[in-house]
Amino acid sequence: MSSVANTFRQISSVTWMNLQTLRERLSSSIVSIVGIGGVVAVVLAVLSISEGFRAALDLSGAEDVAIVLRDGASDEMSSGHSQDAVRVIGDAPGVARDAEGPLISPELYVIIDVPMKSTGTDANVPFRGVGPRAREFREDFRIVEGRNFATGMNELIVGSGAARQFAGLEVGRTVKLGSTEWAVVGRFTDGGSISESELWTDVTVLQGAYNRGNSVQSVRAQLESAAALRQLKDALSSDPRVSVSVRSEQQFYSEQSRVLRGMVTTIGIFIAVLMGAGAIFAALNTMYSAVAARTREIATLRALGFGAFPVIVSVLTEALLLGLVGGIIGGSVAYLGFNGYQASTLNWASFSQVTFAFTITPKLLVTGIAYALLLALIGGLLPGIRAARLPVTAGLREL
């Protein structure tokens, strides 16, 4: 027990000596901190794209709302339903009903070109035709400016995200989309969901404007409960009149986000490894300089009986401290500079723009600091081993 206590005393003594001499190596220490902090800031900024996109899609999905697509379709663009199929879906068990009938929304989804405010170049923007009951099972839907579109009229409402990112969508304006002119009569929010990236109008009007007859691409259905999803699936899969796939909104949007999240995460890891190598070299240089500056002190301590392990721990402790400071600074810069920043990106599942906010979560900040500590640990390991192996006679010659 006394040997363990002695080891801890030696570690604390050597570490305290190292930290007291930090001022003498301030410039090299700052280089190491800036290098690690820069890596953390860039990596968190990239990964916040993935988190923001995931958050936008997660907010869009409810467990008790089903999306019904044609069997084999992975997205709305490749799906399609006839009016007969819509009636069959509305009559199926598990769908919520009231005095007005089933709570469903037959929806048509087309892609239109709208210029971006930032660049003036055209972007693919979703234009959704919805049924008259669409708002009833979107709990967070709010008209925040103007009014809702009128049934049977060439009117549309625009999501707040789309209004921020794309030009010509201000309430009160008239825009030409395709061969039809539309009056922008309102702006809406939907709790930060993907719907805020879209334009909405009456499904019947959109069918006529784009020559879609009476077909729709998806049917959203409010379920009696989340557990009723299985009942709806079983009923429709055994009905010979339709060939459909049924999933909850939550599952659907999770699948939609997988491609982009995987791609952004891969890019983030690549950047982390590439920039991390540079930060490790900066940490190595800093810690080698620290060891060289303390050659006499280390040799003296070794001559007095201090072991190699406390010397290694002292060097690693200093490196980890620099890494912690760099990680905190890098995380703070990323959070203050990017968290909440509004942007848009291409949803590879639908080939349309999705507006979202960069999101730096507490988990992401912890990941960034942990990565900073890992870089510092790697950067301090070799100098620590060198310090421990330093010949006592070589150090004492400098006295």
Order of helices and strands: HHEHEEEEEEHEEEHEHEHHHEEHH
Rg over CA atoms, rounded to whole Å, is 30 Å
Structural class: alpha+beta
**3D shape:** elongated
User: Could you give the count of β-strands?
Assistant: 14
Which consecutive residue ranges, at least 5 long each, have pLDDT under 50?
A: none
* First and last CA, distance: 35 Å
The major β-sheet equals: 10 strands, mixed
| Tally of individual helices | 11
The residue fraction in helices comes out at 40-55%
Portion in strands: 15-25%
**What is the mean predicted local confidence, pLDDT?**
82
Topology:
Layout: H1 2-20, H2 26-58, E1 65-70, H3 83-91, E2 97-98, E3 101-102, E4 104-115, E5 122-130, E6 141-146, E7 155-159, H4 160-165, E8 174-177, E9 180-190, E10 199-202, H5 203-209, E11 218-222, H6 228-237, E12 244-248, H7 249-293, H8 295-303, H9 308-338, E13 342-347, E14 352-357, H10 362-388, H11 392-396
Parallel strand pairs: 5-10, 7-9
Antiparallel strand pairs: 1-11, 1-12, 2-3, 4-5, 4-11, 6-9, 7-10, 8-9, 13-14
Helix pairs in contact: 1-9, 2-7, 2-9, 2-10, 7-10, 9-10
Word description of this protein:
- The chain is of the alpha+beta class and 399 residues long.
- Helix content is 50%, strand content 21%.
- The chain has helices at residues 2-20, 26-58, 83-91, 160-165, 203-209, 228-237, 249-293, 295-303, 308-338, 362-388, 392-396, and strands at residues 65-70, 97-98, 101-102, 104-115, 122-130, 141-146, 155-159, 174-177, 180-190, 199-202, 218-222, 244-248, 342-347, 352-357.
- Strands 1, 4, 5, 6, 7, 8, 9, 10, 11 and 12 form a ten-stranded mixed β-sheet that branches.
- Helix 2 packs across helix 9, helix 2 packs antiparallel against helix 10 (362-388) and helix 9 runs antiparallel to helix 10.
